[in-house]
Please model this.
Amino acid sequence: MSQGQYVALAYGVVFVFVLLWVAIIATKLVRLERETGELAEIARGRGSDG
Amino acid sequence: MSALTLYASDVVALARKDLRLELRARDTLPAMLLFVLSTLVVFHFALPTGTADDAAFGLLWIALVFTALLGLARAWAPEREGGALDGLVLAPCDRSAIWLGKTLAVLVFLTAAELVALPAFALFFAPVDLVAVAGVVLASIGICAVGSLLAAMAAASRGREVILPLLFLPLAIPLVVGGVGAGISPQGASYLTFLGLYDLVFAILAWATFEYVITE
Amino acid sequence: MSSRNSLPLLAFTTTAVLGLAVVLALLVAPEDVDQGVSQRIFYFHVPIALTAYLCFGLGAWKALRLLWVGDERRDLESYTWIHQGTIFGALTLITGSIWAKASWGVWWSWGSNQLVLFLVLFLFYCAYFMLRFSIEEGARRERICAVYALFGVALIPVSFFAIRLASDFIHPTVFNREGPQMTGTMFGAFLVCWAAVTLLAYVMYRVELVGKRTDVNLRELREALS
Model:
């Protein structure tokens, strides 16, 4: 590998790490959305009873 | 009685309790002695012929660190098994005295193991000079000071046997550097100074933070 | 609350600075006379390392505040800073390794004190997560993690000296990595990169903290509703 390719590899790794982090946060966000939805269901059920 | 004398007598009482328990139960110390001897013998077979004495000395330190881990894993066992840790926490002594008492007790066990390990090493591999022994003494203090606090942390966790080495080994690296350097380097004294520095910094830190580790 | 509004602004600013930093580092800064194009890795590798130290330091600071003042929000903050520190620490090791390969032809060298230091710290902080996940949630876990974070920050200078001692006598220092002599433009580029990486770490910290706090809130809500 040429020197320039090593530079590209280093910058690429940083880029991939950040994107990976974004992907993990996105997964968490989806889970949070699902959980809030479930809680909203429960609250709606309560509201119709009470 | 001044506060300091009171503190010291608490520490001595706690350490004596551990030593007396071990004298009766005799499960930790014989294991440590046998372990360190067996490890040294294994090293003989693990080292190819013509290995420098220096390399063997490095392995001595591996043996000492893992023997210490063996002792530390059992350090809080009496309190855990007897449910006595809550009682100790409620006792009218400074929480840090509990840490210091335990550190001293483990130090006694480790020293006993070293009294076996060092002559055995001198016999099997290479002679050990005074600076090397000083290194062992100083590093042992650090090992026990840091180790007994980490062992208390591990006792609070679910994965207790496995977690202690993971916590301990990174913190043990500077001690191994100091101890091995004291043994093999011509500038042994600077390694001894470094070990003293480590002991000072981490003993103070452990002394100051221990109460946060054991209070529920 | 103003801080809640500033996060989007912060994120966009960070993106701009980061973009500028990459352009400066790769295109504008002059090529180093001695090391050639591989020196450009340095523009991000060193800021990433410095940022990792900063994150560990902030994690320890939050931990200290937790033990001192007792505000339980500090636990999540300390944990998140240490998480960022570990991410950037891993990045330091990877970019440092690539730089080593580009400069000296080997992926790893025990002679590189900074890499070895980061390896030790990385091991230490990985154990932090093992510790945290093996203790039951509660005040005790918060305190134990805080104490461990303090030990980490004490370990940094102690390990640094240990490794320096070790490299003098135990492992001969084969490779000599001096700080590059930088021209004005190079130094300017370095500063922008440093600012960009620090901002990036801060944005990531803020985003993660929001996620973790929301988690806690949701759990409390769930308990309250059921």
Summary: Chain C has one domain: 39-216. Residues 27 and 40 of chain C are 10 Å apart (CA to CA).
